[in-house]
Write a structure and sequence with these properties.
single chain; 375 residues; alpha/beta; Aspartate Aminotransferase, domain 1; Aspartate Aminotransferase, domain 2; 2 domains; 15 helices; 43% helix
């Protein structure tokens, strides 16, 4: 019996094999032995959280060549604290007035074509997202014409998808620079290639959020980095800024434990020192084994699935739904219905098996389950 899996069963939940990638809803990440060991060590002693946040913030900033940084409870919290900072930087009165924004610029301009689930994070402490342009795109002129005295900043979603119909980050920075506005950047999963991660972290006059689950820290953690003045304002709004500062700021609910802070630093050090070519080669070893084992099954074809950031490489299954007499959605549901449950991602008649988080025995479980469901 797998005692690790049984733990979840004893707690009334079904253990999941993660063939979907870094998904918050199934736990986000699996920490490495080194990170886990560091968390256990951190549990032995208490520490001044204010001291820990500042010292680890300096370490993170140095690792990423950013002006300043600190650990947050996820990238969503980094965005929320970023918005609070942009609305109140340099003003103790405004810091204490939030989330009430009467008389405070609270609008964040955002390109309509980039609309996504997580823009809501900017509104938690009183921000308001203003969509500029439409689904056909946004021009620099449209963005510039939308700036008013109520504009607190401009938001950019670093999706990694090329799109000539919207302004890229350089275009956003140019407009923001002409109006002395900060830029908030959701770079949650832009952690590889490493040069890409560092380039975002070094963006001038900006606040940049990363999801630390993507680098092997806890699902609950993130990194906020960027312009020192803005990072310090965001820190004043954080839970420990609230506890140790003189101001009644807004971020008290966004609490972290000391073990989580340590986990982010150790995971980042590991991530930056890692042999990523070997990491990706291991992806293809697993993917090729899966494709070999699924070869020849009627109504099924397979190919490598490559992601630009190489976080969820794996196998793409294309299913002849009519020939099989079963939809991809039904296949996904049947994979989920087992114990352990297998989570994947699907679109149309294609199903993706991400391999980064599959340990060896899980690879064969996935193969066997797919064969039984499709054969």
């Amino acid at each position: 019996m797998n005692t690790n899996a049984q733990l979840y069963r004893d707690l009334g939940a079904t253990p999941v094999i993660n063939a979907a990638g870094n998904q918050t809803v199934i736990g986000g990440s699996r920490v490495s032995p080194t990170v886990q060991e560091a968390m256990v060590a951190a549990n032995r002693y208490y520490v001044s959280m204010d001291e820990l946040f500042h010292s680890t913030g300096e370490i993170i900033a140095n690792l990423l060549n950013a002006e300043a940084a600190f650990v947050t409870p996820g990238c969503g919290a980094a965005l929320a604290l970023s918005a609070a900072a942009c609305m109140s930087v340099g003003s103790a009165e405004r810091m204490e007035q939030l989330p009430h924004t009467d008389g405070i610029p609270n609008q964040f301009l955002f390109q309509a074509r980039q609309k996504y689930h997580y823009q809501r994070c900017l509104t938690i402490f009183g921000g308001h997202v203003m969509m500029i342009g439409n689904q056909n795109g946004t021009s620099a002129e449209q963005l510039e014409d939308s700036i008013t005295e109520q504009t607190a900043g401009i938001h950019y979603y670093a999706s990694g998808d090329p799109d000539d119909s919207i302004l890229d980050l350089d275009g956003i920075l140019a407009v923001a620079g002409r109006h002395n506005l900060p830029v908030t950047i959701d770079a949650a999963y832009q952690v590889y290639p490493l040069d890409t991660m560092k380039a975002y972290a070094q963006t001038p006059d900006a606040l940049i959020g990363f999801g630390a689950k993507y680098i092997g820290a806890c699902n609950s953690t993130g990194i906020l980095c960027g312009k020192k003045e803005l990072v310090e304002a965001a820190y004043a709004h954080s839970f420990i800024g609230f506890e140790t500062g003189d101001l009644e700021t807004v971020g008290r609910p966004l609490k972290l434990d000391r073990q989580e802070v340590v986990a982010v630093v150790v995971a980042l050090q590991e991530w930056l020192a890692m042999d990523h070519e070997a990491r990706i080669a291991d992806h293809w070893r697993k993917a090729d084994h899966i494709m070999t084992c699924l070869d020849g099954i009627p109504h099924l074809s397979t190919e490598r699935h490559i992601e630009d950031n190489s976080l969820s490489n794996g196998v793409m299954l294309t299913i002849d739904e009519e020939g099989l007499g079963k939809t991809v959605a039904q296949v996904v549901d049947e994979l989920k219905a087992g114990d352990p449950s297998i989570w994947t991602r699907a679109r149309g008649n294609r199903l993706r098996i991400a391999v980064a988080h599959l340990i060896e025995d899980e690879v064969d479980i996935v193969i066997d389950r797919v064969r039984k469901i499709i054969s």
